[in-house]
Amino acid sequence: MEQLREVGRPVKRVDAYDKVTGRAMFTDDLCPKPCLVAKILHSTIGNGRVVSIDTTVAKKVPGVVGVFTCFDVPDIRYPVAGHPWYADSAAAKRDKADRKLLDDRVRIYGDNIAAVVAEDNVAAERALKLIKVEYEEYPVVYDARESMKGTNPPVQDQWPDNLAAHTLAVTPDDKLQKLGYSSFDEAINDPKYHHFAIQTHTGEQSQVHIEVCVSYCYMENGKLVCVSSTQIPHICRRIIGQALGIPWGNVRVVKPYIGGGFGTKQDIHFEPLNAWLCQQVGGRCVKLELTREECFWTRRAGSRRTSRSRPTWATTCACTPAPSRAGPTPAATSTTGTPWC
């Protein structure tokens, strides 16, 4: 029998020794010190609009370099999901551009409405507490199904009914007929099968990676450099360019080792804001590091969801996949010939 060189042999990871000995360098390890730090002011209402922001007192705090609000950022909306960018011929498949660097439209408690850049964390935190915000509050809707009936105003202006997308799956009638049924209801109510209904609900989850979300940005040779604990450096580069309205080639993203991500760092939420703040202070190095609490409420993780199903199985207790039911002419089928919903 041929002796294989690699299969069946333990292979040492190329980064193993550096990580277990502490030599591996993560984003914060590489960040120049001292550097400017950025902190974000989050909304204290769940739904509404920012009417005005007074930063006069905050700007006078010793060590504060700049205070920027939702009224200062470019009026550019960009996507944050870590997916490839489709060409113009398939633009309908692109991720939804629903994010601004800072937004006067508050859609959830904790939305980003202003940011402070300072010489250190103490100055930045002091300045945040001195920013005065006036809101126009709207009713808060806590139930997703209730929100799908429409709200005034909608969550996003481009989707008046709060439905960004709808998926319709229909099982053809001819497959039903091959099973001997004339309708979906006849199939799932066949008395020779066992039936029951179940509803499940899962709450929101957070991956709680050891390293929080952190990045730092600076200008070098005419390019904007972003060093980030991200899982998607190439997509991060594109999204920064889109958010700032600059050529993607003018952005360089460096991804060091990351202290866990598990999908949370496959979205780009704060690197564009950090890059823009860097521009506003003349290209000086600015670090933006989220607290653990901010990681919980400002990152997209496992969202809460409710699922309803009506499994059907034969007396053999072999459960089978559900057929799809949708549209004006519902239908059903399964890969094994046993229908269910």
Strand-helix topology:
Elements: H1 16-21, H2 27-30, E1 36-42, E2 48-54, H3 56-59, E3 64-69, E4 105-106, E5 112-118, H4 121-129, E6 132-137, H5 144-147, H6 173-178, H7 184-188, E7 194-195, E8 198-202, E9 214-220, E10 223-228, H8 233-244, E11 251-254, H9 271-280, E12 286-289, H10 292-298, E13 305-309, E14 312-313
Parallel strand pairs: 1-12, 10-11
Antiparallel strand pairs: 1-5, 2-4, 2-6, 3-5, 7-14, 8-13, 9-10, 9-12
Helix pairs in contact: 8-9
Task: Describe the model.
The chain is an alpha+beta fold and 341 residues long. Helix content is 20%, strand content 21%. The protein contains ten helices and 14 strands. The strands form four sheets. Strands 3-5-1-12-9-10-11 form a seven-stranded mixed β-sheet, sandwiched between helices. The chain has a three-stranded antiparallel β-sheet with strand order 4-2-6. A two-stranded antiparallel sheet has the order 7-14. It is globular. The C terminus is likely disordered.
